[in-house]
């Protein structure tokens, strides 16, 4: 929990300071709610989540007959936890062998880093992992993955054909043949606006389905928290194209935009499997709504 707190320092500092000034004195009135609205919007919660939270906090205040602005903090915490709680659905890889996890995201979101952390996370649970090097656009990225795999006991399927779908197909079949527990299918970074690349990733999904009609079992989007509201836009686009089942939100340690989780919860509640709060393996952690809000408000 301390690491989480450390990781969320930036968002907490900003949010905490602004909230302290909102809740610091005076009385609970419309001016105070106006200030609160500004604070929530500034933390990148977005218009819809902000309106929802304001309404919910007002209801809690009148229900409990709160008079002291200081008590509002607790009401806001409760509202926030309730709003983002539905995103807390841990990734469960039992039930499929191999479990096929497809990973998507824009360049620089933290996809490669997160895949490395995920591979080690699964290994720490005694699972064998095979990685499909589906970023066929960057030869260097492919080479890097192979070397990384050798060093870390992760099987890597790579080929020079340049066809990401073919790599995924081979990887799923290899995993079946070798009795591997988890296949992670990496894909090249792409923007939702690059329509030909979105078609390509849809094809990867279709071809995975050919290799295993029950899969892919998880289609995960990696998002950079620094992009704020754009992370919500990316979630919508990738979800529309692929049918997302999970999210990873990285770089929460480097940003004050941690409120975007509320926006995602309100507008496109795809389960938030993991959050990244730093660059080491321990810094990718399963998302726990209450811990997250506690760490923001400490
Ligand atoms: P990709 O292009 O999506 O594969 O992105 P990378 O995995 O290469 O990550 C881009 C940069 O972000 C690298 O410098 C990573 O070390 C860094 N990064 C990824 N996740 C996190 C995180 O949770 N916290 C921090 N501080 N940096 C991260």
TrEMBL record:
The keyword GTP-binding applies. Keywords: Cell membrane, Cytoplasm, GTP-binding, Hydrolase, Membrane, Nucleotide-binding, Receptor. It catalyses: GTP + H2O = GDP + phosphate + H(+). It is a peripheral membrane protein. Residues 271-284 form the SRP54-type proteins GTP-binding domain. One of its GO terms (cellular component) is plasma membrane. Transmembrane segments: none annotated. GTP binds at residues 105-112, 186-190, 250-253. GO terms for biological process: SRP-dependent cotranslational protein targeting to membrane. GO terms for molecular function: GTP binding; GTPase activity; signal recognition particle binding. Its EC number is 3.6.5.4. It is found in: Cell membrane; Cytoplasm. It is an enzyme of class 3 (hydrolase). Belongs to the GTP-binding SRP family. FtsY subfamily. Involved in targeting and insertion of nascent membrane proteins into the cytoplasmic membrane. Acts as a receptor for the complex formed by the signal recognition particle (SRP) and the ribosome-nascent chain (RNC). Interaction with SRP-RNC leads to the transfer of the RNC complex to the Sec translocase for insertion into the membrane, the hydrolysis of GTP by both Ffh and FtsY, and the dissociation of the SRP-FtsY complex into the individual components. Part of the signal recognition particle protein translocation system, which is composed of SRP and FtsY. SRP is a ribonucleoprotein composed of Ffh and a 4.5S RNA molecule. This is Signal recognition particle receptor FtsY. The gene is ftsY.
């Amino acid at each position: 929990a301390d690491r989480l707190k450390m990781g969320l320092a930036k968002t907490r500092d900003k949010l905490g300071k602004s909230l302290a000034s909102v809740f610091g004195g005076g009385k609970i009135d419309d001016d105070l709610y106006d200030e609160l609205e500004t604070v929530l919007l500034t933390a990148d919660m977005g218009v819809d989540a902000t309106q929802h939270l304001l309404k919910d906090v007002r209801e809690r205040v009148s229900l409990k007959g709160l008079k002291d602005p200081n008590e509002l903090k607790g009401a806001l915490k409760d509202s926030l936890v309730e709003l983002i709680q539905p995103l807390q659905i841990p990734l469960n890889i039992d039930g499929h062998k191999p479990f096929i996890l497809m990973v998507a995201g824009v360049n620089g979101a933290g996809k490669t880093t997160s895949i490395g952390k995920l591979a080690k996370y699964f290994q720490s649970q005694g699972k064998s992992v095979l990685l499909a090097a589906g970023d066929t656009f960057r030869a260097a990225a492919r080479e890097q993955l192979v070397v990384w795999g050798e060093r870390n006991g992760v099987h890597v399927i790579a080929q020079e054909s340049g066809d990401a779908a073919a790599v995924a197909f081979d990887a799923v079949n290899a995993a079946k043949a070798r009795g591997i527990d988890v296949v992670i299918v990496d894909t090249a970074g792409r923007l939702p606006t690059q329509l030909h690349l979105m078609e390509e990733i849809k094809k990867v999904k279709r071809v995975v389905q050919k290799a295993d009609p029950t899969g892919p079992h998880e289609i995960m989007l990696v998002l950079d928290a620094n992009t704020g509201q754009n992370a919500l836009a990316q979630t919508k686009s990738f979800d529309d194209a692929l049918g997302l089942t999970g999210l990873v939100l990285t770089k929460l340690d480097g940003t004050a935009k941690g409120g975007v989780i509320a926006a995602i919860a309100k507008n496109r509640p795809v389960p938030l499997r993991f959050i990244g709060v730093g660059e080491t393996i321990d810094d990718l952690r399963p998302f726990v709504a209450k811990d997250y809000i506690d760490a923001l408000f400490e």
